[in-house]
UniProtKB/TrEMBL annotation, chain A:
It comes from the Bacteria. The keyword Transmembrane applies. This is Rod shape-determining protein MreD. The chain crosses the membrane at residues 55-74, 86-105, 111-131. Keywords: Membrane, Transmembrane, Transmembrane helix. It comes from Candidatus Gottesmanbacteria bacterium RIFCSPHIGHO2_02_FULL_40_13.
TrEMBL record, chain B:
Residues 119-253 form the Rod shape-determining protein MreC beta-barrel core domain. One of its GO terms (cellular component) is plasma membrane. One of its GO terms (biological process) is regulation of cell shape. This is Cell shape-determining protein MreC. InterPro entries: Cell/Rod_1, Cell/Rod_MreC_2, MreC, MreC_beta-barrel_core. The keyword Chaperone does not apply. Signal peptide: none annotated. Residues 72-99 form a coiled coil. Gene3D superfamilies: Rod shape-determining protein MreC, domain 1, Rod shape-determining protein MreC, domain 2. The chain crosses the membrane at residues 7-27. The keyword Lipoprotein does not apply. Belongs to the MreC family. The lineage of its organism: Bacteria, Candidatus Gottesmaniibacteriota. Keywords: Cell shape, Coiled coil, Membrane, Transmembrane, Transmembrane helix.
Length: 142, 256
């Protein structure tokens, strides 16, 4: 199933950089950070960020740093978020997408928001279904 | 205290290092060869998307298979070009000086470029190696597409008219001046028009020739006018004449 995840991430990079400025990579980075263990997730989001920088013409390291910082932030609340309602995760993911979009793409329209919500729901359901999390899987401690 | 995985810490440091190196263009040796791989990949994705959108359009208009939509686009473009020519000829009759200001003079040098993708910016397949520099104008015929904002060896990024950071001086075919700006809703607005000046629907909006842009490049036509008496200015919504999603090739003007 991880091979499919890599394919989806690569497709999301292409779509985001060549077709439509929707933060699909960020959505994947967010969900990967929550659903995979930190070691795996950090390598995936780092690589994803570098590829996005390369494809999207940004300064190398920008997105990888953003995604890694997001991962660290999410790791702090990983247990609580998985124990809580899925809605909280969705709201946080939507907020992250909104901030990222306003900063990098500067788009804010009804059609854009609807597309973003649908993408978030799609990726969210995919990750919840195929990469379920065990709450005993504690990777970070405070 | 937060304990972070050592790989994560290492990758964060590596990201910061890469950011620092690339900021000072020290990674170009690595990035330039990679770009020659990325361009064909993105080009294929963009072409596939165009083929898919054409296919769905044909499905929707199966009964009108003889590409009525394409003919309409061509006629609109021709009509706009001709309208612009009429306007120019009238001006030339009034003043010999304006003859010298005709749009797109022959001494302009055009660099053809393939469109690699359109996200927030349009990405084109020419860069420093073809002589492209930031600030150069990108056109399709007499239509302004945007301005080059950043360049690498092999590709360039073009800021489009609907970008929120885009702002350029413009005038209507009747001579009313204002500024054209992009909006976050991806629409184009003709604003800063004095209340005393008259705006009309379907009037063409073109560049004035200021701010290093060639004069009389078509930006679009007025489709909606907003007037608020308490506002010192009025504004209008502009619709571009060309559909950016159908563009395969554009031209960079390099003499300015």
């Amino acid at each position: 199933m991880k091979y499919f995840l890599f394919i989806f991430i690569f497709l999301s990079l292409l779509i985001e950089s060549a077709l439509y400025p929707l933060p699909l990579s960020l959505i994947f980075a967010f969900m990967v950070s929550l659903h995979l263990n930190q070691k795996e997730a950090s390598v995936i989001v780092f690589t994803e960020g570098l590829l996005l920088d390369l494809f999207s013409f940004r300064v190398f390291g920008t997105d990888s740093l953003i995604f890694l910082l997001l991962l660290v932030f999410l790791s702090l609340f990983r247990q609580k978020m998985h124990a809580g309602r899925a809605l909280y995760r969705l709201i946080l993911l939507f907020a992250a997408c909104l901030i990222y979009s306003l900063f990098f793409y500067k788009i804010f329209s009804t059609g854009y928001i609807i597309t973003a919500i649908l993408s978030i729901l799609g990726i969210f359901i995919y990750m919840e279904r195929f990469f379920p999390v065990s709450l005993t899987d504690k990777r970070l401690s405070l | 205290m937060v304990k972070t995985d050592k790989y994560t810490s290492l990758l964060i440091i590596l990201s910061i290092l890469l950011l620092f190196l690339d900021f000072f263009h020290l990674l170009n040796v690595v990035k330039n060869p990679l770009e020659s791989v990325i361009i064909p990949v993105k080009q294929e994705v963009y072409n596939a998307k165009m083929a898919l959108s054409n296919f769905t359009a044909i499905l929707w208009q199966y009964s009108k298979f003889n590409s009525l939509a394409q003919n309409e686009q061509r006629l609109i473009k021709e009509n706009n070009d001709l309208s612009l020519q009429i306007q120019l000829l009238q001006e030339e009759n009034n003043s010999v000086r304006k003859q010298l200001d005709a749009p797109l003079p022959a001494d302009f040098h055009y660099i053809p470029a393939l469109v690699v993708g359109i996200s927030r910016y349009m990405e084109i397949s020419v860069g420093e190696n073809a002589g492209v520099k930031p600030g150069m104008t990108v056109v399709d015929g007499a239509n302004l597409i945007g301005k080059v904002v950043s360049v690498t060896l092999l590709r360039s990024r073009v800021m489009l008219l609907n970008d929120p950071d885009m702002s350029l001086p413009a005038k209507t075919s009747r001579g009313v001046v204002g500024r054209v700006t992009g909006q976050s809703s991806q629409t184009i607005i003709f604003e800063r028009v004095l209340q005393k000046d008259s705006l009309f629907l379907n009037d063409q909006v073109v560049t004035t020739g200021e701010e290093n842009l060639p004069p009389n490049l078509i930006l679009g036509k007025i489709v909606h006018i907003t007037v608020n008496d308490t506002d010192p200015y009025k504004r209008a919504k502009i619709e571009p004449v060309i559909n950016l999603q159908n563009l395969k090739t554009v031209f960079v003007i390099s003499t300015l």
